[in-house]
Amino acid sequence: MSDDGQVVGVDGDRLTLVKYPDPRLRSPCRPVGKVDDDIRTLIDRMFELMFAFRGVGLAGPQVGVSLRLFVASPTFHTDDRQVYINPDIVALDGSQDGEEGCLSFPDIACRVRRYQTATLRALDRDGEPFERAADGLLARIIQHETDHLDGRLLVDRMGSLAKLSHRAALKELEAAYETARH
Ligand SMILES: [Zn+2]
After folding, report:
1. CATH code for the domain of 16
2. pLDDT class for 44, splitting at 50, 70, 90?
3. CA 141 to centroid of ligand 1, rounded, Å
């Protein structure tokens, strides 16, 4: 990456999933400067990984790229490919309770309270601005993925009871990360 926040020569094939507790998931991301072919290559690879691991959303830091962008497919159809670059949530309303998972926390699902609706502005794959009003699952995905862009994770949204019941799984991920480092 260069200083203006652009990805230089992304080697899409080498991108892999970044899992908890990798510190790259904790850094707030920088805005995308220009939506160019490097960004589109990155986006294509993110969709590949997201569908391969059966996710409905994936954010830049989850592939080790600290840029404000995420991809989503609330219907999990390969032709439903939603791209959100430099997203900005402009309105939130209501509330919903539901199960939430994260590809950076494999095998963990927990109840998380989110807003029922979310309106956001972002750039699409061609760098064109758009605004979308989302409800239900898509609103949940948008809140989960924008959390990622601010370095906020599922574990931060867990209540103390959920944290306790997932303690073994979290410890396992921490141990796996330590083993991979050494
Ligand atoms: Zn996630």
Report:
1. 3.90.45.10
2. very high
3. 9
